[in-house]
Amino acid sequence: MLRLYKKEGDILRYWEAWVHEETLTVHWGTVGEMGEQRETPLPTGEDPDMAIAQAAEPLVDQGYDEPDPDAMTPLVVQYALRGKGTGHDFEKRHAVEEALTDALGWTGNGEVEGGETRPGRMNIFCRVMDPEVALRTITEALDAEDLLEGASIALVREGEEPRVLWPEGHSRPFRV
Q1: Which positions ≥6 away from 164 have C-beta within 8 Å?
Q2: pTM score of the predicted model
């Protein structure tokens, strides 16, 4: 998979491509929106990486570039647990990871890096291009899957205290 971005004024655009089962998929749009996609059959014997590179060439010429991983913003979705959690909590964590992988990926805004369960809390780690837009995307995705209740979402930059973005008025400590 290749993902490229370009800033145009206040608008951040994305373009991504991948090959799956001999089909080249190209997906593009404005960060935070579902965008458009086109699928084309991969010619027999063509190297998938070369097909992606050829599809990307005009975008690179227009100023699109791969994101600097350090420029992406870390967000953590957290749920309080009783003790070490239960099997249900483990299943919930995976459901949240799957919902956010789809939501962030299809809106070009980032990715889920994984999750963990610790005594008293469960964390899902994301890296996003636009945290304000990602907050809306994440809350909508969790709400649509009935997973929003009990969630807290925080901006967690290295060397800084976590800053809770959602819910408003959040009062309990947020520890990663």
Answers
A1: 152, 153, 154, 170, 174
A2: 0.92
